[in-house]
Structures are given as C-alpha cells and as structure tokens.
Design the sequence.
C-alpha cells in the first residue's frame, strides 16, 4: 500500500493570509512557506498556471521546505491550450498584437518551443532537490475526446520526461457513455496518472467522481460543491467547506487509491479563506497512519 500526501492548492493566496490561519510572525513569503510545510507534506503550486515560474523562485521554494516535502506544479496556461494573457509571457517572446489573450497558434513555432523549454528548466531546482512531484496539466472544457487530443497528451508526457505529468480533463465527452472505459484504458496503457476530482455535477465541464488509478501514482483534487460554480471569480467557484462527514465518506476511496499506487497526492482546492487548510488538516487526522505526516522540524534558514 502506498502512502497518501495531503496538501492544498497554494499557500499564499490573499484570502488565506487574511483568514488568520498563519500566525502573526509568519509575516513574509519565506515564513509562510516554512509554516505551511510544518503542517502539510505537499502543496500544489497554482500560480504557475497564470505566470510561468522562474528558476530563482523554485530554488527558494526548495531551500525553505524540509526534506521530503513535495511540490506539484500546475502547467502554464499556454501549454494546456487555455487563453493566456500576453502580459504574462516572457517579455522577449511576446508577439506584436493588440490581443489581450493569445493561444499557442498565435505564437511563432520557435517562441512556443522556447516557452516549453523555459517552463520546464525553471523547475530544475525542485527536481534536483527531490521535491518535485507531478506536473498538473488541467485541460480546458473545449478539450474533447478525439485522436489529436490523445496524441497531445502523449506529446506532453514526452516533452516533460523525466518529470511526470498528471492529466485533469474538463470535458464530459471523455466520460460519456462508453468513453470512460476508453479514456481510462488509454491513460493506463501510457502510464499517465489520471486526476480524480470531486466537483459540482450537471455542468458541461463536470467530470464524474471516478476514483481509480491509471499509473503508479494518483491524484485526487477536491474542488468543493459551491452553488456558484459558474461564477466568474475563482473565490466564488471554490467557496466551499467540506463537513467532517463528507470527508469521512471519502477516506475509504482514498485508501483504495493507495492500495493501487505507491503514492497518492490529495489536494484541497476549495481555496477561499482557510477552508482548504482546515479541511486538509481534518483529512490528515481521518487518514491516520496512512497519510504522510508533515515534517515537524523546520528547514535550515536560507543563507
């Protein structure tokens, strides 16, 4: 049976800082990350979806966390086909355009390849420190099941090697009728970890709560059940606090994932205020010895 690592999607959002979850002395980025890492063994970096990371920042993340701490990193929006703000691109790669948002096809091929190269190389400090878990590729609602998209999933995995990717799908066609079995078998054959989700149902981007492993590692993301799932703001979409009963009902299914894998990454993505941190702590308690405990000792102070 593999271990389970529990964490949250991000650690420095404005609302969690304002919530009072951090003590008064955790008053800067370094102290907040150290404090977070003393409570959880895992974090999902979502800021890299909006802006590509840089190597210096990744080096600081590695230095400020204890041995065994794990970062899952969300892929930059351009690499998953989402609209990307021109201002978020590397300055020297920005196209001359009046558009605010662009897609991969709006970049010259050489510039697109350079985005890939810089994104991956920026994560080297985490990989070298043994603290890089998975790269989360969350695809947009219009990324449907078809041959070309399957080929892109394989391309993504190839580009990222030796780093590992995890695949989160957001279009119902991947799981409609008999497609669920086809989708999961495709991921298994290619050893691509499937991202299981708990999320509101009944929407075009709703994915059923299938809990299964398609590789030697698994990911489970809890998005909550906000009644405002279609709201424009992220805070409204993920504004949900799981009850203890809800979390308790999930523990047997997480144990099943652990039975199938060497590691299962569980991420609370209900990131409004300190809801994710509170639920994450509850889940750690409910899972008991099966969940990896966070390091109690702080990492050495950075030079």
Sequence:
């Amino acid at each position: 049976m593999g271990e389970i690592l529990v964490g949250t999607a991000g650690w420095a959002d404005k609302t969690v800082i304002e919530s009072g979850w951090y003590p008064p002395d955790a008053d800067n980025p370094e102290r907040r990350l150290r404090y977070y890492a003393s409570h959880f063994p895992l974090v999902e970096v979502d800021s890299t979806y909006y802006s590509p990371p840089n190597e210096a920042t990744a080096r600081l993340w590695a230095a400020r966390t204890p041995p065994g701490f794990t970062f899952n990193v969300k892929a930059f929006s351009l690499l998953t086909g989402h609209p990307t703000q021109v201002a978020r691109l590397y300055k020297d790669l920005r196209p001359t355009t009046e558009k605010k948002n662009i897609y991969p096809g709006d970049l010259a091929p050489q510039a697109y390849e350079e985005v890939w190269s810089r994104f991956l190389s920026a994560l080297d400090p985490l990989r070298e420190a043994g603290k890089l878990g998975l790269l989360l590729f969350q695809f947009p609602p219009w990324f449907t099941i078809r041959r070309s998209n399957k080929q892109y999933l394989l391309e993504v995995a190839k580009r990222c090697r030796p780093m590992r990717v995890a695949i989160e799908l957001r279009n119902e066609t991947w799981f409609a009728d008999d497609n669920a079995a086809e989708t999961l078998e495709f991921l298994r054959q290619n050893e691509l970890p499937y991202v299981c989700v708990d999320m509101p149902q009944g929407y075009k981007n709703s994915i059923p709560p299938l809990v299964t492993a398609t590789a030697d590692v698994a990911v489970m993301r809890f998005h909550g059940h906000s009644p405002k799932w279609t709201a424009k703001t992220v805070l409204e979409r993920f504004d949900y606090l799981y009850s203890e009963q809800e979390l308790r009902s999930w523990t047997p299914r997480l144990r099943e994932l652990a039975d199938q894998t060497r590691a299962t990454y569980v991420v609370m993505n209900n990131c409004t205020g300190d809801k994710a941190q509170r639920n994450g702590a509850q889940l750690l308690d409910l899972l008991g010895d099966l969940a990896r405990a966070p390091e109690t000792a702080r990492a050495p102070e950075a030079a």
Remarks:
- Confidence is low (pLDDT under 50) at residues 297-303.
